[in-house]
Amino acid sequence: MNVAIESEAYSLHLASAILLYQDRQKHIRYASHHAITQDEAGKAHIEPGTGISSAALEKAYSELMGSQNLFYLEERVLAYNGSTFIVWLPPKPRKVYFDAPEPMGKREGITPHPGLVFAIYPGSDVRIFAVKGPQRPTPETKLYLAPYLNIYGDNGSICMGNVQAPDPSPDSIDAWESAFFNSYFTHANYGIRTSYPGGIYSLWNDLLDGMHTTFPEQVLVSPKGEADFLLSELLGDTST
Q: Which InterPro entries does the UniProt entry name for this protein (predicted)?
């Protein structure tokens, strides 16, 4: 283990170490800080450590990276912390593709869609919810189950299938939108995703048949049943 770096410009010595601990899904869950000592033979040793705070990690990162330029976040970016970002897609017509069991079958076409909120976490963990109205969401905006196929559970997890996930960064919003809507919707999972008469297949068949000029927002349902689920709750969820 090298304990020093020497150059004409500066001299550095090994002072401490940060150890990162991850779970089976390779998500980092814990970090510890350790002092480095050196024995008489010049060999470095990592001493017992203590848990490191997020503030200390940010300080170490800031000192390593130096001053960073600020960058503009467009209107569709609702939140970003360097690794997780939440974006909003306003309601508008979009083309969709289906290759699902009957009564859906294989269909495609342009239909109206509700406003959507995507939460994109490290490891290509992507969740999607619907919102009502054309306004940019605020922390007090109510979120609803996204009325789509290929969605798992009430937490909005998307089955990406063989779709190549774009980079998780705010400048890749269009790429994420394209990845979601340009793939085939193939299966409905357990649970009620809409109150539309006849269920989710009837909803999309009627939309493709042109029965609605705007998305019928009244059929959106909350992930919590009768209780509201607010965007502020999603902002506080940084787990994957």
A: Prok-E2_D (IPR032787), PRTRC_protein-B (IPR022280)
Measured between alpha carbons, how far is residue 121 from residues 68, 139, 158, 167, 168 in Å? Answer: 23, 18, 12, 11, 7
Q: Is 107 exposed, middle or buried (0-12, 13-18, 19+ CB in 10 A)?
A: middle
Note the pTM of the prediction, 2 decimals. 0.74
Instruction: Give the whole-angstrom CA distance, residue 26 versus residue 180.
Output: 24
Using alpha carbons, select from 63, 60, 65, 87 the residue that is nearest to residue 75: 87
Torsion of CA 117, 118, 119, 121, to 10 degrees: -170
Tell me how crowded residue 5 is: count the other CB atoms within 10 A of its CB: 10
Classify 64 as helix, strand or coil. Answer: helix
What tokens appear for 183 in the block? 């793939």
Provide the 8-state DSSP code for 110.
E
pLDDT tens track for 5-52: 555 556 778 888 999 998 887 878 899 999 999 888 888 899 999 999
- Rounded Cα gap, residues 64 and 4, in angstroms: 17
Query: Which residues pair with residue 34 across a beta bridge?
Result: 17
Rounded CA gap, 157 and 89, in Å?
17
- The domain segmentation of the chain, as residue ranges, is 4-65, 77-235
Q: Answer for the pair 153, 107: CB distance below 8 angstroms, yes or no.
A: no
Residues 63-78 have pLDDT tens digits of 887 766 777 788 999 9
